């Protein structure tokens, strides 16, 4: 199996690069820039240097060894990655003085294998302040824009290639072509990797790794924990116990749905814990979203520990962490966007001997593919993502039972109206958020002063980037009318038209 190494220099699209590579059926592995040496890269068919927020000419900027460029393995530098390549090879990188290039830009390319089947002019996505002001000796410029004299460069003799733009984002018109040309024409990859084969390998791996050990899994009913449960059940059978913690912050009817769905699969290995009072008490007075996540992560672990003690010593805690959870919690040099309860919300001391995260190398679409292979029902495979902290991060400000009840109803109404509409281009995720904003309203002849609900719907194929969904006005109108009339304490409904980036899908 061919493998490509994605060297992480701290950019927020690094996981997306790996995903785009895997879409071409080539396995991509991400490793921090400072943990790889030249001898390590020889096991890979190619290496990709990612973007990053630093300036390469500053002393503290992340840099790998130049020996990696001399290892004979093809290297593709992207954004900061191409600037680092130029710097290490003796070129010059300069600041544009705050007038960098951002957003969609017209790209003009020369005839080169990296740009095979790409028109001479196309649209790319730029996001940089620094630029390559002098290419290294032996390199030539293969693409330019009006503002960037080196939008791409190459040294075919050394198998070194670089692009200043981001081919991994959907905004670059022929980005997938660039990556495909690098993988197949330059690196000679076969394209024979399949996540379903990877799942079979994982089952065998965990059979051996967890041999004789008992494991406890947090089951939320979402696709990640559901696939994780089936995968580990295949690996260790009855030595896996799944604990479903009903923290009182689930969507309407969700607690019963999860239990009724998984009881036939897991039988007595499924334990449902009613912990609503415990979580609401721990969250009382807390408004900061990061504190909410940390508190909920802490309480989850403590509940698991208690259940584990009832079962006797349980060595392993299993979690459904996936790649986007890791990157958004900060990985390597990447900036922390938000802590995920599976990654950043864990207390320092837990009573388990180890934590297993069998899905942490997979993206959402790959997890769904694995779920289908394992026989998970379609309605669960394609179920909408739901944050581990539940409605706590969809309630802006303090969490109370009354707010949770109101949001549950508003969310159910919105989801019902979207589903009833039977849209051809349905959003990939849609939900309601209870904001902390109160505003004046009128019901009958009386003045009201209620909360504002925000409706959120996004279209995406990877959840690393997302566009807000253009729902029909009629759908939004029906949802708004029903929410303000049927849910007490709600006086206003708004629709979120922010994309990711710059926003995230969730509000907190």
Description:
The chain has 508 residues and is of the alpha/beta class. The chain has three domains: 3-186, 3-Layer(aba) Sandwich (Rossmann fold); 195-381, Rossmann fold (3-Layer(aba) Sandwich), CATH 3.40.50.620; 394-495, GMP Synthetase, Chain A, domain 3 (2-Layer Sandwich). 32% of the residues lie in helices and 23% in strands. The chain has helices at residues 14-23, 38-41, 80-88, 175-186, 195-209, 223-236, 254-266, 276-283, 289-311, 323-328, 364-374, 378-381, 401-421, 473-486, and strands at 3-8, 27-32, 46-49, 75-78, 92-95, 101-109, 121-128, 130-134, 140-144, 152-155, 160-163, 215-218, 240-246, 270-274, 316-318, 354-356, 429-443, 446-459, 467-468, 490-495. The strands form four sheets. It has a nine-stranded mixed sheet with strand order 2-1-3-4-11-10-9-6-7. A five-stranded parallel sheet has the order 14-13-12-15-16, with helices on both faces. Strands 17, 18, 19 and 20 form a four-stranded mixed sheet that branches. α5 (195-209) crosses α6 (223-236), α6 packs across α11 and α13 runs antiparallel to α14 (473-486). The longest helix has 23 residues, at 289-311. It is globular, with a radius of gyration of 25 Å. The model is unreliable at 330-347 (pLDDT under 50).
